[in-house]
Amino acid sequence: MAVSRRDIFVGKNESISPNSVIKRRSPDSDEEGQIRTPLIKPKNVDRIFPMKRLSMTLLNIFSGICCCFFLLVLEISALLSYFYRIHIKREHKYTPSVKPAYPMGKPKKSIDLRYYAQLLGLELSTHKVITQDGFVIDIKHLTDPKRTEPTIRPVLMLHGLLQSSGAFLTGGYKSLAYMLVKNGYDVWLGNNRCGFNPQHIEYDPSDYRMWDWDLTEMCRYDLTAMIDQIFKITGFSGKLSLVGHSQGTSQIVMFLSNSMGINYADKIENCTLLAPAIFGGPMLNQKLFIKFMRFLPDPMFDLFFGRRAFIPILISLRNMMYKSRMYGLASYSMFSYLFDSNDYKWDVSLRDVHFLFSPVYQSTKLMKWWLKGQGFRMGRPIMSTDSSWFRGDTPRMLLIIGGADTLVDGKMFYDYALNKEPFMKDKVESLFVEGYNHLDVLWSDDIQDTVGKRMLRFLDGE
């Protein structure tokens, strides 16, 4: 929905006025951070004429039909793959969980993330921030109301593709977010633009201009806005830590790279990258649906998937079906099929809970970026290797690499940073976890032991 600035609140009592200036260093700002150019174009600059609007409506109808057909084929394939693995190959390898995730065992299904935080004795508040290009995004602040001593340092956690901030918390007592809070860190759960409720101060979701973005804008505007807002709210004078999963790691690495020119390294203490999505893995050359989407020429891709949100019916189905057991099974089978992963290392009672906070709205342009543009190819990085990515002030990085992760190749990124980036030789570390797939680094039942302990030592500077 299109909203005005006077409708947006940064925190509980602090509003952003229509004339306020977002302070941020960027290529379009002076040394004091004052924006030189208007944040929003006048409404009449890009007026959509009737014939163009009609052609866009017809395109949306056609792409909607194509997307529904594509989704149906994909879901049937995913369910058949699930049935084959579980009932034909007999790959059922669940190990009963010995540690409860919530005080009552399995919690009820809710799409209110705060409900799950409160079950853990924590509190979750939402803060809204407007990005420099006009998107309204949410960041969640996870706190322990019983804590009396000061927190150590802010930690901003960034989710992966099609996911939201809930992915870091649904594991309950066994989640990485809970572990960080209980170890004294000031935990912030980031969400990128659009999420479950697309908002922009100028454009409506039906306007294709609201969806003209990919990972570049998410780095330049979303991540800078979240970091600035955390410092503004907390008044923290030091540096914060970044934790990302999958696409969140891509966002972090691009954000810190020389090619973006954002120059926020002096605000970041260190980065933990869970399943770093910098180099593509072998799965990208195996999946038929990926080959099909890459095969489509750009005009056909736009015709098939539209130019706005990517398969938006996914979110509608989630809102209608999230309480049903079928939704959990369909979501798991789809993610398992797409990312070549399984849930054998999870607390299986939480599987339905994990998928309550996905999928979210993404732009078709972002999906095209991943599949057809600079994004993923087997053995190739998301950025050009013609010049160095990092500088002397680039923060330390810990890479969490799953041994069974075929979607991304974390070891290739580790080797590249160690051998090709002169400033990273003493700044990059890795933890290789045998048998972990792309989602195990978030939801494995033993994640705090296998990943969490090393992560805490890294955050503490050890």
Shape: globular
> What strand line-up does the widest sheet have?
1-2-4-3-5-6-7-8
- The parts where pLDDT drops under 50 for at least 5 residues are 9-45
Q: Could you tell me the strand content as a percent range? A: 5-15%
**Which quaternary structure do these chains form?**
single chain
What percentage of residues falls in helices of 4 or more residues?
Answer: 25-40%
| CATH architecture annotation | 3-Layer(aba) Sandwich
Overall pLDDT? 88
What is the name of the CATH superfamily? Alpha/Beta hydrolase fold, catalytic domain
Largest sheet: 8 strands, mixed
Rg result: 21 Å
Predict the CATH topology. Answer: Rossmann fold
Estimated structural class = alpha/beta
Please provide a written account of the structure.
The structure is a single chain. This protein is α/β, with parallel strands linked by helices and 462 residues long. The protein has one domain (51-459): Alpha/Beta hydrolase fold, catalytic domain (Rossmann fold). The protein has 14 helices and 8 strands. The chain has helices at 50-88, 113-119, 176-182, 215-234, 247-256, 288-295, 298-305, 313-321, 325-339, 351-354, 364-371, 410-420, 440-443, 447-459; strands at residues 123-130, 136-143, 154-158, 186-190, 240-245, 268-274, 396-402, 428-433. Strands 1-2-4-3-5-6-7-8 form an 8-stranded mixed beta sheet, sandwiched between helices. The longest helix has 39 residues, at 50-88. The relative contact order is 0.14. Keywords: Membrane, Transmembrane, Transmembrane helix. This is DEBR0S4_12684g1_1. Residues 114-171 form the Partial AB-hydrolase lipase domain. Pfam families: Abhydro_lipase.
